[in-house]
Amino acid sequence: MQITDVRVRRIEKEGKMKAIVSITLDNEFVIHDIKVIEGEKGLFIAMPSRKAADGEYRDIAHPINSETRDMIQKAILTKYEMTALESQEDETYA
């Protein structure tokens, strides 16, 4: 499985959520609404989730193993950092 596209929508409001991301796998399958969150130990991703009847949030889609989760998180955070640098450059030249 290859991540063939990562699209980042940055969140400009103050808060822990920094972006909403969509990834494409093998040019065939898309996962929307992955969140980039600022935690105590740095940035991490939260997979798309839905609130269940009991009030708990449950992932709609998620990796089965930690290696896949790490691969997805690395690809997303790398792209997020690239968009952060592009935003800073845009502000510098504005």
Write the layout of secondary structure elements.
Blueprint: E1 3-10, E2 17-25, E3 29-39, E4 42-46, E5 49-51, E6 57-59, H1 66-93
Organism: Brotaphodocola catenula
Function: Could be involved in septation.
Protein name: Putative septation protein SpoVG
Question: What share of residues is helical?
Answer: 25-40%
Largest beta-sheet details = 4 strands, antiparallel
Instruction: Find the count of extended strands (DSSP E, 2+ residues).
Output: 6
Q: What is the count of DSSP helices, taking H or I runs of 4+ residues?
A: 1
Neighbour order of strands in the largest sheet? 1-2-3-4
Poorly predicted runs of 5 or more residues: none
Tell me the strand percentage band.
35-45%
Based on secondary structure, the structural category is alpha+beta
N-end to C-end Cα span: 40 Å
Order of helices and strands: EEEEEEH
Anisotropy-based shape: globular
Average predicted local confidence, pLDDT: 91
- Computed Rg: 14 Å
Family: Belongs to the SpoVG family.
Keywords: Cell cycle, Cell division, Septation
Protein name: Putative septation protein SpoVG
Function: Could be involved in septation.
